[in-house]
Amino acid sequence: MTPREPPPGPAAPAAARPQGAAVPAGGPAPEAGRPPAGPDAAEAPPPAARPRRGGARSGRGPWPLRLHGVALVLLALAAGAAAAWAWAWSDAAWDARLARARTAGVQLYHALDAGGTPPVGLALSDPLPDGAPAADPALPFATEISFLSLGPGAIGGDRLRLRVLSAELSYPVSSIAGDEAAGGPAAALGAFSALLARWCAEPRVFARLGDGPWRRVEGEAIWGCADAPPDLRAPAALGLVLAAALLLGRWSAISAEFRAAAAALRTRRDEHAPIHPRGPAELREVIAAVNRRLAEERERLEKRALVLSGVSHDLGAPATRLRLRAALIEDAELRGKLERDLDEMTGMLDSVLAFTRAEMGEEARRSLSLTALVEAVVADYADLGRPVTLAAPPPRPGGPVGTLFLAARAPEPPGARVVIEARPLALRRALGNLIDNALKYGRRAEVSLEADAAAARIAVTDEGGPAADPAAMEALVAPFARGPNAAAARGAGLGLSIAAAIARQHGGALSFETAPAGLRAVLTLPRG
Length: 528
Hints:
By secondary structure, the chain is an alpha+beta fold. The chain has helices spanning 39-43, 65-114, 177-199, 220-223, 233-267, 281-327, 332-360, 370-383, 424-441, 470-475, 495-505, and strands spanning 123-127, 141-148, 159-166, 204-209, 215-218, 366-369, 388-390, 419-422, 445-451, 455-462, 509-514, 519-526.
């Protein structure tokens, strides 16, 4: 039934149904061209809406690695077979040409020696009127060879002399000396004829037997280049090399896709930002799974932040009532303890909520002056009378920076503004947490800023005396982790965790170093 045909049954269109007519039990009949409503319609979509089989692996999608491997293997086999066939065919064709030329040379010798008819493909011209062949400026290369005809029982014979003129080369006749010694002059002339056919240089050949006249030997059909078979050995080798280069290039491209995906996953600035799909189908499936996991993680953090926000809001009114009631307590010491407990309780909720928001990275990035941000944070603490100072930048080494390749690591000159892409509010909170931590466990805090073309480093140094091992401090970055000297200090144990989470959101890291008078916390932020 086509979509334009009315559905079967006695139901009439709504416009033609008389008033008071009963509606069928199945509901009003669907309009022409529309799918019927109801559960059955939801379960059985029209054919046009059904997805094609294969899903992402349709003909237009990227090839899976299995097909890539099969295609590369088949291409390698085809290239190898084609190269082997071309090489074998060329060898056979040239062997046939050289064998024909060798046979023609042997027959030519017997024809000259006996005064007979030359073989097919060769012809002898009339004697030259001027005696010896004249030199030709167009044929500057001359090759001469002599053969001594020895008959049975004879001690001497006529000498056969050949002179070959060529525009391209002098023929290496020394290579046929062994043929003459092994098979006599006939075999030597056959080898020389094969030599002419091998080089294919359009030679002009003259022959003289004994004291007879010089005669030209016409042999274009045997020695000429027109009838020479194509030599496919060099193209076959080149094709094999190109096929190997293509295979290696394709394999390198696939490997590069995996390396690029790994680099994107390793160096991404936003921990929960999706990764762009790329490469073969298997890699895209892995990236899709990672993106789903990142989306689930972000959704989990959003739900946690929503719950914590609700809890913080709901506890606001009871906390306010407790503060009002605490103000009515006449015992100042008891009143102070209760107020401090309330502050600690609300501070812990705020810290957990801040940690969740730091992990989510809700704030948008923008270009900012990191120098101005650090100076503003230090100035805020100084206005409150807190012992926080900004260290002067270290002097820049004099002289030129080594080479062009070291320029990326050259430090910024003193007074230069360090500009990065970052989240300003998050960075202020991270730096504030590090300063608060330094003031809590040390007498003062010194802040310094260094940068090069690759990264910027904010260091906060305290003067708390002998510092803990930096490796042990790395464990205190975990949420709610507190050191042995934190028993008397108030806090939720989330300050370093929030700073580390903000550093990771920027693609950087929080590390610790041993300072001369205490501990140094270093916040590293990439600039690229």
